[in-house]
């Protein structure tokens, strides 16, 4: 099939590359000329494991093209995917300006029947709005509008796209449903379902999935906060409940809050939509409040440990800047908030991340930049620091076994926002180790090691 993807961000680039790899002829369109030039030279602007191999193959075999010219790309397409940004507007409402601008351009370009697919995360009713925008300029026989939300995760995007647990297709048109089913059949060979439903349910499914996952994480963060108060261990509680298949093992890891480009904005957006329809979505109100506090909960622990909120004269190492491992994306990353809070309290930072130093530098404040030295290895971030703060669970941070820290650090004090290390080993190694929802180790007057299984 001839596929045109409009918007070559995370979703557009991964979708376009994977569709090309399954034998389609794909043209990706973006208004960012510099990005398109780089992509045409074979340079991928994001770090995403496994993408490069498929991308190179697609370009080499002539099935993956990039352009800024929307006209030709849409005219030749059987299917047009909209993979455009839908950032939060001022009040939390999703900003649909990119989607509606492109929708307004499409009508005049359709010559033969084309399926217009919205892959962006958009509020309920957007498929209708896109249909109306196109219908103003094109015969209704010439197109259908489909909602096809994307569930990939950054850092695992290629696998998620190639082997989706489900594909959701929202359309009331049988013709469009058949085309979408044919397109996705190679991706669900393992028997996972393509679920066809109406457009509105499909649009809401995307928000419901993200809001449910954000709620699950937040629930565990609250359990962790209780664990800290009653002397329990959230790892044990997680194992104890996760083995119940009704609850499930995944997305139960307590930490320093969820970040990224989607959970925060999508929770806000569905909360806003509910409010627009006269419904107060109370649970999501709490999820947002708890998550805000959780992002900087580690700073509160540091204040308790030092007995002051004045960190002047202290230097902290920071491991991990991205919002999660295997990505250089720092959007809504807890590390941004933690760095800001530490610098506000007078600290200096030595920061390391395997991939996200560049993106972090662009996003953080001048004040943080002035007080931060970025280093190129985890080891360098341990030099002459008062304590290490762990913000992202990159695998390489698990490698120096916890026993090594005592030899490598001036003060073996670790504040771990991601629960990387075993408590009893930290205790034996003589490290002061304060993590999330677990008893603190080697801290005078604080609870000691709990009951590790
Ligand atoms: N990032 C992720 O992991 C996921 C994102 N989503 C959703 O997918 C949508 C896109 O997200 P990302 O790929 O992260 O966005 P992004 O912000 O990384 O990229 C969007 C791209 O669209 C381009 N663009 C903007 N206006 C344009 C226009 N008028 N014409 C052509 N190109 C234009 C931008 O230059 C940029 O390259 C959002 O609605 C998001 O919520 C859904 C699932 C996963
Ligand atoms: O709509 C989207 O953009 C995507 O949002 C999330 O994907 P992503 O944001 O890439 O990353 P996740 O792996 O979901 O992690 C999100 C945040 O939750 C945190 N998290 C995750 C899992 C967990 O157990 N605990 C936890 O704190 C992570 O550290 C991270 O900050 C969803 O998982 C995807 O299905 C969805 O397509």
Automatic annotation (TrEMBL):
Name used for this protein in its record: UDP-glucose 6-dehydrogenase
Superkingdom of this protein's organism: Bacteria
Residues that, per the record, bind NAD(+): 30, 35, 86, 121, 154, 265, 331
Annotated ranges, domain UDP-glucose/GDP-mannose dehydrogenase C-terminal: 317-423
GO BP terms: polysaccharide biosynthetic process; UDP-glucuronate biosynthetic process
General function of this protein: Catalyzes the conversion of UDP-glucose into UDP-glucuronate, one of the precursors of teichuronic acid.
Xref: Gene3D superfamilies: Cytochrome c1, transmembrane anchor, C-terminal, NAD(P)-binding Rossmann-like Domain
Annotated NCBIfam families: NDP-sugDHase (TIGR03026)
Keywords of the record: NAD, Oxidoreductase
Residue positions of the active site: 262
């Amino acid at each position: 099939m001839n596929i045109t993807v409009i918007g070559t961000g995370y979703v557009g680039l991964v979708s376009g590359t994977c569709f090309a790899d399954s034998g389609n002829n794909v043209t990706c369109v973006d208004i960012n000329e510099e990005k398109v030039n780089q992509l045409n030279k074979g340079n991928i602007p994001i770090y995403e494991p496994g993408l490069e191999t498929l991308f190179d193959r697609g370009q080499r075999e002539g099935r993956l093209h990039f352009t800024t010219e929307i006209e030709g790309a849409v005219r030749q397409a059987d299917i047009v995917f909209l993979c455009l940004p839908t950032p939060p507007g001022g009040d939390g409402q999703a900003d649909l300006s990119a989607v509606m601008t492109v929708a307004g351009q499409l009508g005049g370009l359709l010559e033969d029947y084309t399926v217009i697919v919205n892959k962006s995360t958009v509020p309920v009713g957007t498929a209708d709005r896109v249909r109306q925008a196109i219908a103003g300029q094109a015969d209704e026989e010439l197109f259908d509008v489909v909602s096809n939300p994307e569930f990939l995760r950054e850092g695992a995007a290629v696998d998620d796209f190639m082997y989706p647990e489900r594909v959701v297709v929202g359309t009331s048109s049988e013709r469009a449903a058949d085309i979408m089913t044919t397109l996705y059949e190679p991706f669900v060979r393992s028997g996972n379902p393509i679920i066809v439903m109406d457009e509105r349910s499909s649009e809401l499914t995307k928000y419901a999935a993200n809001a449910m996952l954000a709620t699950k994480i937040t629930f565990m963060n609250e359990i962790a906060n209780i664990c800290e108060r009653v002397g329990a261990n959230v790892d044990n509680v997680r194992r104890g409940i996760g083995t119940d298949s009704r609850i499930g093992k995944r997305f139960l890891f307590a930490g320093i809050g969820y970040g990224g480009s989607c959970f925060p904005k999508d929770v806000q957006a569905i909360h806003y939509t509910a409010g627009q329809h006269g419904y107060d979505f109370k649970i999501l109100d709490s999820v947002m409040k708890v998550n805000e506090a959780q992002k900087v909960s580690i700073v509160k622990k540091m204040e308790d440990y030092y007995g002051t909120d004045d960190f002047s004269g202290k230097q902290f190492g920071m491991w991990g800047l991205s919002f999660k491992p295997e990505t250089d994306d720092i959007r809504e990353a807890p590390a941004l908030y933690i760095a800001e809070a530490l610098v506000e309290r007078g600290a200096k930072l030595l920061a390391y991340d395997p991939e996200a130093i560049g993106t972090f530098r662009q996003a953080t404040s001048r004040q943080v930049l002035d007080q931060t030295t970025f280093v190129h290895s985890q080891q360098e971030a341990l030099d002459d620091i008062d304590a290490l703060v762990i913000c992202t669970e990159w695998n390489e941070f698990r490698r120096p076994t916890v026993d090594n820290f005592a030899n490598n650090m001036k003060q073996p004090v670790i504040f771990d926002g991601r629960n990387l290390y075993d408590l009893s080993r930290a205790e034996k190694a003589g490290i002061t180790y304060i993590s999330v929802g677990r008893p603190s180790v080697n801290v005078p007057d604080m609870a000691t090691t709990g009951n590790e299984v």
